[in-house]
C-alpha cells in the first residue's frame, strides 16, 4: 500500500509568500503547496493537505485550537501513516507539548515543523524542513511500524521530542533547543535515527485522544527583590488550581519567612505548586540547598527537568483529567510522555 501523509497547515511564516501587488508577506492558498514546492511530487507518497481556515499566527494558539488539531488527527488517524503539522515557531513547543499529552498511545508520527523564512523566499529554510519532516513521518521499520511514533519537532536538521523543546532563537535557522534530552534523529546525507531514545506505544493497545484541558494555572517567575504580594495575591484568584514557580538554578527561591509563608498559604489552600527552574538545562533538586529544602518541606512539587512549556501543558492535561488536585499532584511527578527524565 502507498505511504500516505497528511499535511496540516495551521499558519505561520512557512506558508507565506510575498504578495506581488503589496510586496507584503501573506499566507498563500495551501491547496497550491505542490506548485510552491514542486519537489514534493518526487516523493511518490500520497500527500494530502488540510488547511485551517483562517490560518493563525501561532501567538493565537489556544486550547480550542489544540482541540481542533487533535480532532483532525483523530478523524484521519486510520487513513494516514503519519502527520506533518506546519505551525508558527513562536508557540510550536507549547502546541507540541500539549498534543503529546492529548494523544495517548500514539502509534504514528506527528511531526511539527515551520520555518524562519517563508517558503516562497529564495533562502527559505522551509523547504528542507518540510521535505525532511515528510520523510521522517513516512519512515517505517521492517515490520511496517512507524520509526518515530511520537509528537516531534523537526527543525534545521534535528528531530526533537516535542515536549522537550523550547524556542530559543528568534533569528537563527536553528530556532529550537532540547537541552535536557538528546535529539531523536540527526539529518545530514542520511537520516540517523536514535531508536534507543524514541518512545514506542504499547503496540496493539488502542490510540486514545483526550480533549479536556483545564487552564487554571498561573506562572510566577521568581526574581530578586520581588514583592511577596505577587505570590499571596494568587490566593484570591477564583478557580486557580495550580501555580508554576519559575525558580533559580536547581530549584531555589528566597528563604525569608514572608516568601515561604506566602507559598505555604497557596499549598494550604489546596493549590498545586510546581517548581520548574529558570535554567534551560539541568534539573530541579530540592534537596541540594536549604532554599530548595524549604519549598519541598511545605509541599511544593518538583518539576524535575521539565521545560516550562511541558509543565504547563501537563498541568492543563492533568487538571482536565482529574477533578481532585491530589491526583494531579501525584501524577505531576510521574513521567507520562517522556517529558521528564525519571
Ligand atoms: N509569528 C510567527 C508564528 O509563530 C512566526 C513563525 O511562523 O515562525 O506564527
Task: Please provide a written account of the structure.
The protein is of the alpha/beta class. The chain folds into two domains: about 5-210, Rossmann fold, CATH 3.40.50; about 215-330, 3-Layer(aba) Sandwich (Rossmann fold). The chain is built from nine helices and 18 strands. It has an eight-stranded mixed sheet with strand order 4-1-5-7-8-9-12-13, sandwiched between helices. Strands 15-16-17-18 form a four-stranded parallel sheet, sandwiched between helices. A two-stranded antiparallel ribbon has the order 2-3. Strand 12 and strand 13 (about 190-195) form a beta hairpin. Helix 3 (about 90-100) packs parallel to helix 8 and helix 8 runs antiparallel to helix 9. The protein is globular, with a radius of gyration of 21 Å. Aspartic acid (ASP) binds near residues 57, 58, 88 and 90.
Short characterization:
Helices cover 26% and strands 20% of the residues. The chain has 9 helices and 18 strands. The longest helix has 14 residues, at 63-76.
Order of helices and strands: EEEHEHEHEEHEEEEEEEEHEHEHEHH
Low-confidence stretches: none
Count every helix, treating DSSP H or I runs of 4 or more residues as helices: 9
- The quaternary organization reads as single chain
How would you describe the shape? Answer: globular
The CATH class name of the largest domain reads: Alpha Beta
The N- to C-terminal Cα distance equals 39 Å
Helix content: 25-40%
- Total strands: 18
Amino acid at each position: 500500500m502507498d505511504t500516505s501523509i497528511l499535511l496540516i497547515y495551521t499558519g505561520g511564516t512557512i506558508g507565506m509568500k510575498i504578495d506581488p501587488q503589496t510586496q507584503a508577506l501573506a499566507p498563500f492558498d495551501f491547496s497550491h503547496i505542490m506548485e510552491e514546492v514542486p519537489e514534493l511530487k518526487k516523493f511518490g507518497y500520497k500527500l494530502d493537505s488540510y488547511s485551517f481556515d483562517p490560518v493563525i499566527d501561532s501567538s493565537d494558539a489556544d486550547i480550542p485550537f489544540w482541540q481542533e488539531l487533535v480532532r483532525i488527527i483523530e478523524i484521519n488517524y486510520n487513513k494516514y501513516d503519519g502527520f506533518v503539522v506546519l505551525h508558527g515557531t513562536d508557540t510550536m513547543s507549547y502546541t507540541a507539548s500539549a498534543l503529546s499529552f492529548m494523544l495517548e498511545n500514539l502509534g504514528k508520527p506527528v511531526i511539527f515543523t515551520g520555518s524562519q523564512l517563508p517558503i516562497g523566499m529564495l533562502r527559505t529554510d522551509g523547504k528542507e524542513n518540510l521535505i525532511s519532516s515528510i520523510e521522517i513521518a513516512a519512515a517505517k521499520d521492517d515490520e511496517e511500524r512507524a520509526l518515530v511514533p511520537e509528537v516531534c519537532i523537526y527543525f534545521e536538521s534535528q528531530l526533537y521530542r516535542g515536549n522537550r523543546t523550547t524556542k530559543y532563537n528568534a533569528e537563527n535557522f536553528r530556532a529550537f533547543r532540547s537541552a535536557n534530552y538528546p535529539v531523536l534523529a540527526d539529518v545530514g546525507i542520511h537520516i540517523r535515527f536514535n531508536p534507543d531514545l524514541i518512545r514506542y506505544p504499547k503496540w496493539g493497545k488502542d490510540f486514545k485522544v483526550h480533549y479536556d484541558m483545564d487552564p487554571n494555572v498561573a506562572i510566577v517567575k521568581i526574581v530578586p527583590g520581588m514583592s511577596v504580594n505577587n505570590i499571596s495575591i494568587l490566593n484570591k484568584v477564583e478557580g486557580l488550581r495550580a501555580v508554576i514557580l519559575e525558580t533559580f538554578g536547581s530549584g531555589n527561591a528566597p528563604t525569608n519567612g514572608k516568601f515561604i509563608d506566602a507559598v505555604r498559604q497557596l499549598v494550604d489552600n489546596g493549590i498545586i505548586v510546581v517548581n520548574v527552574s529558570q535554567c534551560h538545562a539541568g534539573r530541579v533538586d530540592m534537596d541540594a540547598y536549604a532554599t530548595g529544602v524549604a519549598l519541598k518541606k511545605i509541599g511544593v512539587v518538583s518539576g524535575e527537568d521539565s521545560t516550562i512549556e511541558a509543565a504547563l501543558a501537563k498541568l492543563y492535561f492533568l487538571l482536565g483529567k482529574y477533578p481532585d488536585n491530589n491526583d494531579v499532584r501525584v501524577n505531576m511527578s510521574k513521567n507520562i510522555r517522556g517529558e521528564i527524565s525519571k
